[in-house]
Amino acid sequence: MIKKGKVRIYYIDWLRILLILSVFLFHIGMVFNASNWPVKNGEQIEWLNPIMRFFHLWRMPLLFMVSGVGTYFAIGYRTSKEYFKERTVRILLPFSVGLFTLIPIQVYIEKINIYDSLYQFYIHLFDGIYPTGNFSWRHHLWFLSYLFIISLIILPFLNFFRSHKYYLLREKLLSISSKKMGMNWIIIVLLITQYITHQLFPDKSSFIFINWINFFFYFIFFLMGLVLISSDKLIEKIEGQKKLYLIQTILSSTFLISIKYIFNDPLIEDFLQEITKTIVTLSIGITVLGYARKYLNKDSKYRKEMNDAIYPFYLLQQPVIVIVGYFIIQWDLPIELKILLLLILSFSLIVIIYWFIIRPINILRVIFGLKPHTKNYNVNWLYERIITAWNIQVGSKPLKSKTAADK
């Protein structure tokens, strides 16, 4: 049964923070690896590709799993209307604003030699679909579009999630999953889902702007979080079996790397890789959960602030990396120094934008998926915070904003 969302599961918060930071690092790497991206350095690091592909196997599925756990508590006792409103404000609004601000700036940087200015690019924003055209929904905000579609899918089932039938079904699934290596039954579900979606979309094409092969794969992980991982009793079992899942991770990962050296038949190689990738993805996800509950299930004075900041951080990170990267790749510097500069400058700029612009202004907080402050944070408040931060004083007294009496 769905519970009211007042409980904090600290290791889930820390996992969300670490996973978003891993997205940031992943996109830093995209500037310097051999894959296509809006900005590319002239000199590239070939060995980055297999490492990044391996991390991409489990990074996003685990993030969807964590999102499922968050949804378990977000649902609470909300009505369907209340839940739809909350998802619209928290997901659809940031996605919609980003669709016309955060994504176009990346496409413009990629095609900067074609247009005289950003204004000229916006005039031609709807000239075709990216990558041949200009309008795109495929950049980093695809994650939000998937989450919102998932919200629409589960919306009609909110009452079922609170029913006795669901409670009995969940208990049976938890009982199976709690057994020794019991989470492996989900591998079968993932493989069946992948087989069906590949049959429906054999060329891996998108339909209604969504790659449904990827979508249903991520949807299974979301449901895992919502139905199973939200149970502390199950996570306690997983924590106790974390070494077994770690061994499974090592063995399956080793086999995945070895497939191309063992088999000469491309069809057999592709078939075994698809199966093994699924096993690796689930194994790493469960292993990470077990170790996270063991070592990260604790609060910190920084956790809440970082947990609030991580959503705007996710929204900002890719466009900031693209903009900063555009300039850095033109500098005549060693590639190692370029990576370090891009990392430091991008991270610093994101933090500055969040802390001094988004965080204090209510309308921007809402646009970037945060709850508004109860206090009325206005321009005078922001100006006073900046002045105070730099210890600037006027006539030996700290500068103060005008009061009602002064006005």
Structure overview:
The protein has 407 residues and is an all-alpha fold. It has 2 domains: 10-305, no CATH class; 306-376, no CATH class. The protein has 17 helices and 2 strands. It has helices at residues 10-30, 48-75, 80-100, 102-110, 118-123, 142-154, 158-161, 164-178, 185-200, 212-229, 232-240, 242-262, 266-295, 303-328, 335-358, 362-367, 379-389; strands at 393-394, 397-398. Strands 1-2 form a two-stranded antiparallel ribbon. Strand 1 and strand 2 (397-398) form a beta hairpin. Helix 9 (185-200) packs antiparallel against helix 10 and helix 14 (303-328) crosses helix 15. The protein is globular. Mean pLDDT is 90; it is low at 392-407.
